[in-house]
Each structure stands twice: as C-alpha cells, then as structure tokens.
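New here. Invent one.

***
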Amino acid sequence: MTLILKTNPTSPDPDILRCAAEILRRGGIVAFPTETVYGLGAVIYNEDAVRKVYVAKMRPPDNPLIVHISRESMLEEVAINMPEKAYKLINKFWPGPLTLILPRSPNIPKIVTGGLDVVAVRMPAHPVALGLIDEVGSPIAAPSANLAGRPSPTTAEHVIRDLYGRIDAIIDAGETLYGVESTILNILTDPPTLLRPGAYPVEEIERVLGESIYIPPFARGFAEAERALAPGMKYRHYAPETPLLLVEPRSGDLEAMVSTIRSLAIKHLGVGEKVCIVASAETVDRYRDLPVELLVIGSRRNMFEVAKNLFKTLRRLDDLNCTIGIVEGFEERGLGLTVMNRLRKASKTKIPV
C-alpha cells in the first residue's frame, strides 16, 4: 500500500509534513510536489533509501539525482569550493527551478551522484517541498516521481498511476505550477553549459550572468550525452506509451507543418490506426475535418502554457488509447527550447519540414 497524504499547496498541514518526514527518516521514499513536477524523495545520507528510489523508478544507476535543499545553509553540507557565479545565480533564482552543478561534498554518498564528483543542487519554490525538507532536517535527493522514461508527473494522479504500491507515500497538493522540470546549468565549465533546458529560459539566465551559455546538441534533444552529469542528459525520457511523431517547422513555416501532419494522419488512418494530433490553439482548426482525436497543448503566443500542459497532454495520448500520436513542433526560443527538448526525447520519429 502507498499512503496518500492530501494537503493544501500554499499552507501545508504540519501533521502531513511530520508524517511524511518520519517516513523519510525511517528510510522510506515519498513523492512530493515541487513548483516544477512531483519528485520522489529519499534522505541523501541513507544509501539504502536512495537505492529504493532507483529501484522504484527502474532508473539506471548512472543517472544522477538532484539534491533538494530548503535553505542556503544546507549548501555547506552538499557542495564545496563554490564558484562566485553560483552565488550570483542563487541570489537571483533561488528558491526556484534552477539546478546548479557544483563540486560534490565528501559527505554525499556517490549513489546520489551516479558515481560522479559533482552534484546537482536546487532549492525548490514550493511550500510543501520546503516544509518537508525543513521537517526532515536534511537535504533530500529526488528525481521526478515517475517510471523511468515516462512523461514527468505534474499531479499526484500521475504519480499514483506510475508508482502506487512501489513507494511508501505520496503528498497530494494538486497540480504543479510550471509543469516541466528545472533548468540544469553546469557553471564549472567556461562558458557555462546548459545540461537541460527547463522552467527558467536560458536567455533570462544569460542576462544575470552577463555571458552566453553553451547549448550542446543533447540539450536541444538531438542526442544523448556520453555520460550523465545530471538528469535528462542520457537515456530516453518523457515518452508516452503511444508512438509519437514530431513534425518540426524548422523554417517557421506553419503551413508546411500542417500539410505534413494532415498527410501523415490520412496515411495512418488509411491502415486503421487511431490517430491523435497534438496541436497549438492557432492551428487546431486545420485538422477538425479529419476523424482524429485533437488535443490542444496551448497557444504559440504563450509558451508557459504550452510547457505547463506538455506532460499531461502526452499522458492523455495513452488515456485515449491512440495507436499513433502526431505532435506539432515549436520555435526554439525561450521556453520553446524546453518544449522541443522534451518532444524530441519523447518522439519515436522526428520529421523536419
């Protein structure tokens, strides 16, 4: 049995936090909301508990976990030799969805970092997450609370679907704010390197740093890194069970994209498949004459909305028992880079037009 603990997201019940914290201190694992997605937490110093996280998620052991802290004083426990750039970003963006790669403190078991000498650290901006870490009195290692490779969970219902019976408890505090994971930045390189685009756009971070950030191909979703310094760099991620075709308007030509999607849909309908199309608010009407399921992910003028809806839309494909999903691509600017990273990693086939 997995214990379900419901609470208010902005004013969490202290008894709920105490109950969840006690489970963690006893070596259990607990799913909890952050402002990005739900995380699956274990006390970082309990190697057996951390191992349970990997087992519950069926996560490869070389895929590191993010260490979550609730106050800056906890940084001294988890990181050493902090570069000045780190403090500049921390002062601006924490608490919030920015994860920094820092030199690992010897205190942290290497099972948390996938055997590496660096550690991914962030301070979440969610009252439940911060209250839970404070109640435990220790940093918590937490990847997303889903089976490895599946779309990340933005509600407790998503966690229940993937992990019920595999973990000790779930704190249900409703839907998360951003709907996509934190941005991960390696500031130990020169220039700093984006490891995973996320809820903070790269352009915003560059303005604070006063310098450009290097964006490798794997951060755009085109390839896997040879080794994972942080989550999302290696292995397939975010994929629904429904095979997904991504049509990318590389030249910004929406007409060519719509035409290609219509042709693909007609082709798959012709062999008896149930087709779902994931479209923007601006283009969805172009498909209404087709006998397909239509899912509107949001407006191209509001990429925050698109990012927030992304994972729940991918999970909806499976709910509808689609045999094929066709999804529109977006411009790689601002949160568009985050959305395209997730869509490329989730897709079986990518079709540029």
In short: The domain at 3-220 is CATH 3.90.870.10 (DHBP synthase). DSSP finds ten helices and 15 strands in the chain. Residues 40 and 326 are 30 Å apart (CA to CA). The mean pLDDT is 95.
